[in-house]
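Task 17 of the worksheet. Students: predict the tertiary structure of the chain below and write it out as structure tokens. Keep your answer in the requested format; marks are given for formatting as well as content.
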Amino acid sequence: MKKIILFSILLINNCQAQETIPQSGNSYQNSLLKAIEIQHEFMNTLYYYGETKLDNPYALQIPFKSMNDKEVLNGYKNYKLCNSYAQGVHSVALLVFILNRKPFADDPKKFVYLYGTTFITSFVFRGIGRQKLKKAINRFNSLLIP
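Model answer:
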């Protein structure tokens, strides 16, 4: 159990350490790119590219790559990395549970600890990822000239 918690802390530190150096330069002028809007609903976040509603944040990859700004691309890459870590934590917990069922049957508290740790770690990774995506979107929008 301690190894899982230590592994989770190391992954969180790695996810937060992916910072970039701000890029200097003038605003990006391209009439084909549109601003990205974020709307928060109950238990859901909606993304709009111009007037188009996007199904998920992964659809923002095309406008981000079109912008070709290092900070925007790194923010988006870090968002995907943190989400991958969150999914990996769930996979590892499921694998541990499947391969070691007997200790969980003997002591139900281990099951609660495993999934409690998994839930909290995943929640932290997804939160960090959302912060990285929000920074990338803000940078993207700031580079557009209305």
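Marker's comment: The longest helix spans residues 108-143. Residues 56-146 form one domain.
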